[in-house]
Every structure is written in structure tokens, then in C-alpha cells.
Amino acid sequence: MRYVLAPLVLAVAAALTLGAYAWSLPVPEREKLIETDFNVKRGAYIARVSGCVSCHTDDENGGRPLAGGVALSTKVGTFYTPNITPGPAGVGTWSLEDFARAVRHGTSPDGEPYYPAFPYSFYEALNDRDIADLWAAIQIVPADPTPSKAHDLSFPYSLRIGVKLWRALFPSSPYERNVEKSASWNRGKLIAQGFAHCGACHTPRNVAGARIVEKAYAGDPHMLDGGSSPPISPQALKAEGWTKGDIVRALTTGVMPNGDVFGGTMAEVVRDNTAYLLPVHLDDLATYLLDEG
Amino acid sequence: MMSRALKALSETLAAPAPDPQVVRQAARAINNHAGTAMTSLFPEGSLEEPSVATAAIWSNWEEFSRLAVHLHDLGNDLALAGDGGLVNDVGVLPPIAPSPPPASLWASLDERALLGLEPIVVPAANLEQVIGDSPPSVQETFVAITQACSDCHSKFRRQQK
Question: Residue A282 is nearest to which of B117, B126, B150, comparing CB atoms?
């Protein structure tokens, strides 16, 4: 009997040890933002092209803007996007510093880690001005009283403590400017790696669901939602004959160079996000994706 | 055929001087290949390669048919919009007046529309700039066509690897 119970005891001990370790991990600090003027228009643009509006607005079921409730079905269960309107049910009690920490570090005002279904690791690239403008834009949205819905995840993914451990094991890689490249290329990189978070779908993930950064933009045959995505590295795009004009057209209209039209997730991304990119930013993004300039 | 029409249409609408003849041809191609011409390509159970259709086509035939007819109607709309909107009396495109640069990159943005508080008629801002002062119905129709295609592909086409 002793031998039968031994693995179970070991497993419980290991789980407790890991849990205690995860619990002891530091929570990201709130950062004081550099003083800045708010630009609501710019913030609204960031909210749109970064996916805040589309992900936090349940259009399909008549939800109000930014009131959350969008169901994201994945292999580990269903995530529901929260209400981020500026009322008590949303972010009405938050400070700007709370908001900055939530967006850039995926940490709630109470210090709880968000699941990486929220792409905070991409939004780390947003600077103080971006965050302040985004915050200002959210303030003009009417508050909605609908409470945020709890996620419906299978065990052990339902244990939020595991998220801390996951973060410690798979830290995000910060955005870095490449001084040898043009301003346009770098803006494109910021759009791809930050705001538009292209790698969330187009970079493959390991068994734990973390992105394999060495294979950035290599496409993901086993996406968390059960779908697959094609590679969008410069080599892959060039091999398929994509030009900058093709990329700009595809991201504004959904029409690919062969005349086919995107379906699935990418169709939604174009319709709800990239079609709103300003021409200069589309050009920047295409420059970066094709590694020109 | 449909993809060739969409490719030609997207290219000409992105060009500095869209070709009305291309718009007309695309409208005709869409019109001819949508509606019943499209639904007749999918007799029940025809899932063998090279079809990329899913069985949802037959379990939700009503929706598939609706989208096919909708696309057919949009082909008509495009033909009408092309004749009325892109071509002037002498059969050429109206000149595109250069628009003055905005006070800042953000000044021209509509924050309420971006946040979903008000609808945006045509989200493809760059197309709007290309067409300039001509009636917006060609681009609106083009956007509606691409959205109808996307909608149908999302609902009834297997994800391509």
C-alpha cells in the first residue's frame, strides 16, 4: 500500500511545492506614467487596430461597445473577454497606472495574473503615450453595467495560480527597435509585434502554449482555437510572390494576390482591425513583413 | 473565375486611376457565378477532393443559398455603381483632386466610429482616398462583396493549411 501511495504523495508534494513557488513569484509593479497630453482620436485608433474594440465587443449578440462577453473557444476551455467600459462593472474604479499594468503586464489591479489569452505580452511594446491615449479613448465609451463573465476552463487550467508559474517559465521577449533599419520598417515591426500582435496566430506554440520565438511568423498548424495559420515570414511571403501592394490590399480588403478571399479568423482580423490602419501604417507593416528597408 | 474577378477588382480600385471596364467585367463575372450558378456547384455530398467545402453547406443550405444570392445581387449593385459612379460623360474616370494634408495624422479620424459607437460606412480608408470625390457606392459595394466572400468562406470552407 505504501508503494501504491508513494507516487500520489510525490505528485501532491510536487504540486504544493510548485504552487508555493508560483505564489511567491513577484507581481509586476505599477509604473508611474510619464506626463502626457491625451489624444482621444489616437487612442481610439489604437483601440481599434490593436483588437480591443473587436475582442471586447460582442457584436454577434448585440453587446455594447467594450462591454465584453466575447467567447474565445480554445482547447483548454472558453475564455470570456471582460467588460472594459468606464463604469463600476468595467474599469471605472481603476487608475491610469492600474490600466497600464493590466495592458502591458497582464496583471489586474488586485495583482492577479491574466491568462495569456489576453495578448498583454505583445502590448508590452506600447509606450506611455499609447497607454494614456488608449485610456482617454475608453473614457468616452458609455459605461455598461453587464458584469464580466467568468472563464469556463478545464482542470488544471482553471487554477489561476498556474498562470504565474507559466509566466516564470516562458517570459515574454521585449520589443526592440532595430537602429540599422528604416523608420518605416521599425514602425511596421511595432505594429506587427505590438499593436496588431500578428505573432499570436502566426507563430507556432510549444506544448505548454507558449510561442516559440525562434520560429516567429513560421505559421502555426495547431492553433489554440483548433485552426491553423500560414507562415508570414519575409521568406515565406516572397516565395509566394507577395508584394507590398498585395499585403496592403489583403489587409484592407481581404482579397489575396490570387483573388481568393480570407475566411475564418483572418477575415475577422481584416474586417475589424487591419482595414482601419492608416495608409502610412499599412505601408510600414508591409515594409516590415517583407523585410524591405 | 470569381477569384480572378476579385483580384482584378481589388487591383484596379487600388490604382490611381481605376479602370471602369475592369469594374464592369468583374461585376459581370460575379453576377454570372454567384446565386444559383454557385449553389449548383455543390450537389449534396460532393466533398471529395479538390473541394474545400465543409458539410455545413448542406446542414445549413438556407444560409449558403442566402449568401450566394446576396453575392449575385452585389454583382448587380457593382455593375450599377460602376456605370454611375466611376465613369463620367466621356467614359473616363473623373480626376482625383489631391486632398489637403490633415493637421495631424490623427485629425481626420472619427474616434466614435473607431470605438464602435457609430458605424463606419467604409472601413477601408485608403480605398476612400483612392476614389476621391466619386460616389462611394463602388467601394462600398466592393467591401460588401469581399465581406460576403469572407462570410461564406468562414462558414462553409475548410481551413486551408
Answer: B126
Distance from CA of A5 to the nearest CA of B (A): 46
Distance from CA of B17 to the nearest CA of A (A): 15
d(CA A190, CA A177): 8
The string of pLDDT tens digits covering residues A4-56 is 666 666 666 666 676 666 666 677 877 788 766 899 999 999 999 999 999 99
Best mutation target among B146, B156, B161 (most A Cβ atoms within 10 Å) is: B146
Amino acid symbol at B31: N
Cα dihedral B112, B115, B120, B122, rounded to 10, equals 130
Chain B neighbors of A268, CB-CB under 8 A: 154
Task: Compute CA distances A50 → A43, A122, A131, A134, whole Å.
Answer: 10, 10, 12, 10
- Vertex A49 angle, CA A45 and A53, to 5°: 85
Q: What is the pLDDT of residues A74-115, one digit of tens each?
A: 989 999 999 999 999 999 999 999 999 999 999 999 999 999
Cβ–Cβ below 8 Å for B111 and A262: no
More confident residue, B96 or B121: B121
| Lookup: cell for B30 | 460575379
Is B153:A256 a contact under the CB 8 Å cutoff?
Answer: no
Of residues A105, A209, A110, the one with CA closest to residue A156: A209
Give the C-alpha separation, A198 to A220, whole Å.
11
How many Cβ atoms from other residues are within 10 Å of residue A139's Cβ? 14
CB B118 within 8 Å of CB B112: yes
